[in-house]
Amino acid sequence: MASPLRRFPEWFPRRPWSESALRPVRELLRGLSLNTVCQSAQCPNQSECFARGTATFLILGDTCTRSCRFCAVGQGTPVPPDPDEPRRVAEAAARLGLQHVVVTSVTRDDLADGGSGHFAATIEAIRAACSATVEVLTPDFQGDRDCLRRVLEARPDVYNHNIETVPRLYPRVRPQAVYERSLELLARVADHGQGILPKSGLMVGLGETHNEMAAVIWDLRRAGCEALTIGQYLRPSPEHLPVERFVPPEEFDAYREEAEAMGFSAVAAGAFVRSSYHADAMLTEIGQSGDGTRTNG
Questions:
Q1: Is residue 123 domain-resident?
Q2: pLDDT band at 15 (very low <50, low <70, confident <90, very high)
Q3: Backbone angles phi, psi at 123, to 5 degrees
Q4: pTM of the entire structure?
Q5: How many domains is the chain partitioned into structurally?
Q6: Where are any strands of DSSP class E within the chain?
Q7: Pairing mode, if any, of strands 133-137 and 197-204?
């Protein structure tokens, strides 16, 4: 029997949900037959981001080949990639007037290239349609270097790959992922250079300790990661992993200060922080120009 959803503490911030704020972006996405991680992953920031006229595009379908126990994205056997999807993503970005476009995907272990060619095509389509900076949040491509190279050669401005949690919890939280493999991917992004910013994200509240988190943050920094997001895990349904603990604001502040002291260029830490939440502001903070050349940081 599934355990009940845990109650929010009194100090936990609430997010109002406004259907009218969602409608324009929802209608545009529906008209172009596009998926977003905002909707598929039941992001708590969906209302705010849609009201700002932005969204994080979810490419390669809406069905994942992995079974991470924290994620609300559907799992199963996906359909073949839609070759017209990159064009439609670019059209949506242009029509929304986005200055920074974030593109992520389901994990496609069923594809020979892991969907890397689709990522590259989407980056190229966005570049052709508007002048926005581009951030990708990719899976690990099962450690395939050619897949990673294919995406890097398309020159996204930010390359994000989430480490998600501490290595001790991987078997329970993301059983098909490998901690060392994810670190290696980020190290290769950093070594590639070309002005591409390496970024990663972590969740808290799954049973990790502060010392474990500090060790992971240091591992990420040693791998060359420059931007980091840390947010509270929120259980999408009774079938997903329970929240072990709601982390108070002062602990998020402590994580941010520790990461900054380790040399990260930008850190966002808080209950509702997610990988793509205000991603444009993080890029501006670091001072990266539209052509992917670091100007400071």
A1: yes
A2: low
A3: -60, -45
A4: 0.91
A5: 1
A6: 35-36, 56-59, 63-64, 74-75, 100-105, 133-137, 158-160, 197-204, 227-232, 266-270
A7: unpaired
